[in-house]
Amino acid sequence: xxxxxxxxxxxxxxxxxxxxxxxxxxxxxxxxxxxxxxxxxxxxxxxxxxxxxxxxxxxxxxxxxxxxxxxxxxxxxxxxxxxxxxxxxxxxxxxxxxxxxxxxxxxxxxxxxxxxxxxxxxxxxxxxxxxxxxxxxxxxxxxxxxxxxxxxxxxxxxxxxxxxxxxxxxxxxxxxxxxxxxxxxxxxxxxxxxxxxxxxxxxxxxxxxxxxxxx
Length: 215
Fold this sequence. Notes:
Blueprint: E1 8-17, H1 25-43, E2 46-54, H2 59-68, H3 73-83, E3 87-95, E4 98-99, H4 101-108, E5 119-126, H5 134-145, E6 149-150, E7 155-158, H6 173-189, H7 207-213
Parallel strand pairs: 1-2, 1-3, 3-5, 5-6, 5-7
Antiparallel strand pairs: 3-4
Helix pairs in contact: 1-6, 2-4
């Protein structure tokens, strides 16, 4: 923080959520993780910019890009916001003890190396506490494979967790969210902000340009 009290060294945080409904407990958990991180950064005198990517809004484009490898402009912008951020908060609903197919399809579109050394806070939602191992059995290996830095604390929220109110203690959902936010803030505070690439959102290349880029 500067001598006149202004915050410095902005950090860009991308929030990737793959909830299927509106409202969505997955998006709610993602929002709360982002808010906890922003608050913890503010305590350190660091401002943060948060950009949300709701995978459901890009579902058809994700399927098309999976088949053609050419994402449309909106999906390209969403991918750029993920790969250009200083940190990523990634939250998925749990299906069959793993991440959702839509979530994985989006992540599969990220270029190799695009998440190298990027801090990632993982989260998941589900109907039962029995599925909490999705964090360590599915999400953590996925982002470790992408060479991201996966935070020690992941947050799983079962349906019953949302009724815990303001229950105190690290075991309660609010306590786990706050701990994860503080961990991500501490990691970001010790890093320089990534440079903003002016052409990161340039998606006006025509089809011939895209073909030439493959040569």
